[in-house]
Write a structure and sequence with these properties.
Blueprint: H1 26-32, H2 38-42, E1 48-50, E2 56-58, H3 69-73, H4 83-105
Antiparallel strand pairs: 1-2
The protein binds iron/sulfur cluster (2 copies).
One iron/sulfur cluster binds near residues 73, 76 and 79.
């Protein structure tokens, strides 16, 4: 488990060690997250870990490309999409479709 202290005033410390995934708020994650770890698994840059309470936190300060995959995979809606991560998710999905089309054409 990734142990970190909660600053009580924390809401959107995204992009920092111990911060929440982009779009997530501390209260929202507290209310909705079930600690399944799907967001941790899906992050292509391996930036997220579950903390001692089973909540997702940044383990690395840099590298989030705002791909939106952590928000997309969360079945509990604990990580809402933001305009930036929605654009990132659209880009990610488009690249996946293009890659699949390329593979089919081989
Ligand atoms: S995918 Fe959602 S419910 Fe699962 S650990 Fe991440 S934030 Fe929590
Ligand atoms: S937006 Fe993408 S890169 Fe950033 S934490 Fe979520 S899954 Fe990882």
């Amino acid at each position: 488990m990734f142990e970190i202290q909660d600053p009580p005033e924390e809401t959107r410390l995204t992009g920092r060690v111990g911060g929440l995934p982009p779009g997530a708020t501390y209260l929202g994650v507290r209310e909705s997250c079930v600690g399944c770890g799907d967001c941790v698994e899906v992050c292509p840059s391996d930036l997220l870990r579950l903390d001692a309470d089973g909540l997702p936190r940044f383990a690395e300060a840099l590298g989030c490309g705002l791909c939106g995959l952590c928000a997309d995979v969360c079945a509990q809606g604990a990580i809402p999409l933001t305009p930036a991560t929605r654009r990132g998710l659209d880009r990610t999905m488009r690249l996946e479709r293009e890659a699949e089309a390329t593979l089919r054409a081989l």
